[in-house]
Structures are given as C-alpha cells and as structure tokens.
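U., I forgot to send this yesterday:
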Amino acid sequence: MILTLSAPSGSSISLDFNNQFGESVELCCFQFVEPPIEFRLTRRGVPLQEWQAGNTEIYDLQHGHGIKEWCRDGHWFINDLDHRNDVMTCGVLSTELVMETRGIGLSFVLLVWPREGTYRVQLNK
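Result:
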C-alpha cells in the first residue's frame, strides 16, 4: 500500500496513521514526488537524529528495501552498511511523527509506504 500526501512547502504534515491503521503502524520508506527545499522528520518537536543519542546506525527511509545502492551528486550510497536480503528496513513508528518542510510558494507530494504486517486493513466506511 502507498499513501499519497500533499501540502504547501513550509508546512508540517502528520505521518501519524494510528487512527486509520492501528497503533503499531511502522513506515518502511517515503519518497517525494515534488520535494520541498528542506525537510526533516520530528517526533514531539525532536528531530529524528536526536531520538536515540547512542544510535550510530545510518537509516535511509527514502529508498525502499529493494534499492541496494544509488547515486546522488556523483557519490554512490549503499542502502545498508551490511545489506541483508531477509530484512526490509528498520522502519519508524508513525506515532506522533511529523514531516516538517521549508520552502515558499510551491507544494510537495509525498509517497509513504507503511511496512507490511504492521497495519490493519482500512475498513470501508
């Protein structure tokens, strides 16, 4: 399942899908179709990189588990320091998760992939 969200650049958008899919929903990855100038993930106003001070692992939520390496600005990146085919991603719980963006005058489109097995099927209302 892919969720599509859009908002004006410079706004914050909630990625908390607990009401729709249950409390344990985890996000596998996200990708901007139309990106803002800058963005960051926060929980209760705290940026992602500060959630666990002792955590030195690198997580990339912009490239799904099927992408093992990619190139940006002439530099090659590996999706996982020790890429394991039996693990999808670390993921991140959607509880109180917010995407903060910066920019003016444009809007962004964000695709979000919830991790399979962590969400309930949405009921038709």
